[in-house]
Amino acid sequence: MAKAKPKKDDVAIPPTKSDFSGQQLDLFQSFLCNTENERDRLSNTFDLWDSVPRYSVSRQAMDKMRKAGTFTQLLSIPFNYRGRELEAIIQPAWIQNKDSTVTGYYPSANEELIEDALRKIAAEQNYGYFNKPNYRSGVVFSLHMLREELKKRGHTRSYQQIVLSLRILARSSIEIATTDDKNGEGFSINPYFSGLSAVSRSKLDDDPDAKWIVQFHPLVTQAIDAVTYRQFNYAQMMRHRTQLARWLH
């Protein structure tokens, strides 16, 4: 295992009461459906952000890289978006273990499920927030709420596993850069979650009622603002047992 000094999680800025209402948020939380049962099956997908291959390394592949001593500090993945050649450069999260060693993690399918579940929770009234002046969006939730959502969709996780995934998402960063020289060059660098904070009366890893705040990636905020997301059958997607099937869906 690599040994390096860990860094603290980025802190999510607490949303104000007004951040939980507004036209853009109302549109994000509205679905074209006939019944509450149909609504429960729906969530939103984001055009550019969900086109980025940001969960490409499995936990098993990471274990093999660690044993072989080939775990890289940066992972570069080329991809295409609407005919443009782009590149995702991912920096892993470094997480301190209970024995004080530090292990690197690239966001994997585990973290993808966590993000998808949080986006679903954000689409429910009173949980998602959007603040245009400070250009941020996110969700307020408890570990129990997130665990129940995952369990409901067939992906049961322990509180400890969920907290690990949340920390990985807050500490991993991703650079999205143009590589085709069309209209010049450009890039953006941000954590997967721009902010993460929690308040608990006991140990966070074991407190189901701890209040957590996640601030989504800026591309998600941009999509909410510009209404470039689309509703899709989230329940069916979560039923797929493999990451590839979920991505194709």
What tags apply to this protein structure?
249 residues, alpha+beta, 4-stranded antiparallel sheet, 9 helices, 32% helix, disordered N terminus
**Biggest sheet, spatial arrangement of strands:** 2-3-8-9
Write down the oligomeric state.
single chain
N to C succession of SSEs: HHEHEEEEHEEHHEEEEHEHH
What coarse outline follows from CA principal-axis ratios? Answer: globular
Fraction of residues in helix: 25-40%
The structure class reads alpha+beta
The overall average pLDDT, rounded, is 91
Largest sheet: 4 strands, antiparallel
Number of strands: 12
> Number of helical runs?
9
- Binned strand content: 25-35%
Segments where pLDDT lies below 50 for 5+ residues? 1-8
The gyration radius over C-alpha positions equals 18 Å
Please report the distance between the alpha carbons of the first and last residues: 35 Å
Folded structure, characterized:
With 249 residues, the chain is α+β, with helices and mostly antiparallel strands. It is 32% helix and 26% strand. The chain is built from nine helices and twelve strands. It has helices at residues 23-28, 36-40, 59-68, 109-122, 143-152, 159-171, 218-226, 234-239, 243-248, and strands at residues 42-46, 75-81, 84-91, 93-96, 102-105, 128-131, 136-142, 173-178, 187-191, 195-199, 211-215, 229-233. The protein has a four-stranded antiparallel β-sheet. The longest helix is centred in the middle third of the chain and has 14 residues, at 109-122. It is globular. The chain starts with 22 loop residues before the first helix and ends with a helix. 33% of the residues are buried.
